[in-house]
């Protein structure tokens, strides 16, 4: 949970923005612009890691254990006796080997998604570094806008793919701890709110950072929307995960 810890610390450090001297620091400006644009992507990567732990662990468990979890599925007594006898004759190594290809497939899928994660991260970092230049140059401002669109679009795509993968796993993966997977799905939904919000406000433009026009996002309603649609979901996801026993809940 390194990403979550860093997220919590950097949000506390962002309080330095209340300082008049800190607001003119290019380093702090670059840092804050990158952090606000990348936090939800970093947390989505944590959800991917937790999902990988759950589905891989599910392939390492015997089928008899899953039947004890799914208490809503009631089997006839004769069928349970026959099944338990046949399973007792199989060593655990054989049961694990049966799902080796399935386990490898899950690892490959999650691995490629982790590689794709670097696309929105790289775009977000470049966008944050370029931001101070955009305040004084029309050309850099246009490039900054393009970078933000690219980072936002790839971030939204990344979060959406994670949601689809979680939905697929909760519906199809045998023996997976479905309560934990549903928790991940709900948290991914909160992060998708952040990604959609960032895309939705990307088209707004202003010629002054101190403007109070509606499109400047400096109005009271705009700030309320920012805290509700970006800050609150991110904090909710971080607080939920940090309040849990990760090893027990997600089999890390």
Automatic annotation (TrEMBL):
The answer on whether this UniProt entry bears the keyword Repeat reads no
Q: Does the keyword Zinc-finger apply?
A: no
* Superkingdom of origin: Eukaryota
User: Which residue intervals are annotated with compositional bias (Basic and acidic residues) in the record?
Assistant: 67-80
Q: Which UniProt keywords apply?
A: Membrane, Transmembrane, Transmembrane helix
Annotated membrane-spanning segments are 38-60, 109-129, 149-170, 182-204, 224-244
Region of interest (Disordered), ranges? 63-83
Tell me what this protein is called: Uncharacterized protein
